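The instructor's notes for this session suggest beginning with a concrete chain rather than abstract definitions. Hand out the sequence below and ask the class to guess, before any prediction is shown, which regions might be ordered.
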Amino acid sequence: TLGYYADGSQFLDLAGQTSTTSLAAAATSAPKLGRGAMRLVNRRGGLLSGASRYGADVVNHGQLLIGGSDGASALTIDGDFTQSASGDTTAVVDFVRQRGDALRVKGDADLDGKLSIAPSAVLKGAVFDLIAVDGTVSGGFDSIRSELFTYGQQVHADGLTIGPIMADFDQKRFGLNASQKEMSRYLEAVFESSDQTYGETFGDLDAAVALDASSFGATLDALTPGASLAAAAANIELSQSRFDSLLSCGDAAWDRRASIGGRCVIAQTSGRSLEQDGRGGAKGYDGAVFSMA
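After discussion, reveal the predicted structure:
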């Protein structure tokens, strides 16, 4: 038996082909496995997924998915695990609830290449034990990333621990405008605060980028007040201009006024300019009033 699917059924690799129809016959002639008795090589461009156990040494030059989409799967490798520089191991992790895909290697582990994380929730400062190794551990992953976050790694005698260390929402590939850049900086500040309240939101944002990076700007727009406050902003500017005129009657050198029974009469023309650019002090709105009497 070369490996086991998540439902417990076995599979064999016969001359490079996975066999499901001749399992019983092949199993009677297959040698009994010990550590290193068989080797499973995933070549560059290949994909290993859907298994709960590999009864062999595993060499990964392609992509290895530890678990499924639920992020709580366990994969066991009975022999040694080696990942080359071209290899990429992928895992789903919830850093808030401390649950996710986990890999156990009963032999030795030699790590290289990439580790890709699909985070369902992100929390700076949290750590997760991703790989447990019964033998010895050597090397380390060259990069550990998801779409929006970078992760640190700690290689120790028993395996590998990872955790989020940096957020990058303003990437060149997103083509963000000024307002969207402001929102991205705000979200990065929230990430730095290590507030678990926003953990799932960060996970959702990362997943949205994985689906369509070109629409990330629109996603950021959906998180801002946007046009819903435009009317209020315009009303504030209008009220301010009227109060300025009322309270400053006759103060300006250019005022032409007439005093009638202690009253102040003003003839005024004015223009207003409202702007939303994401950089103003009041929720990204700014304005200017031009008056002439």
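Then share the key points. The mean pLDDT is 79. Helices lie at 23-29, 178-192, 199-211, 216-222, 230-247.
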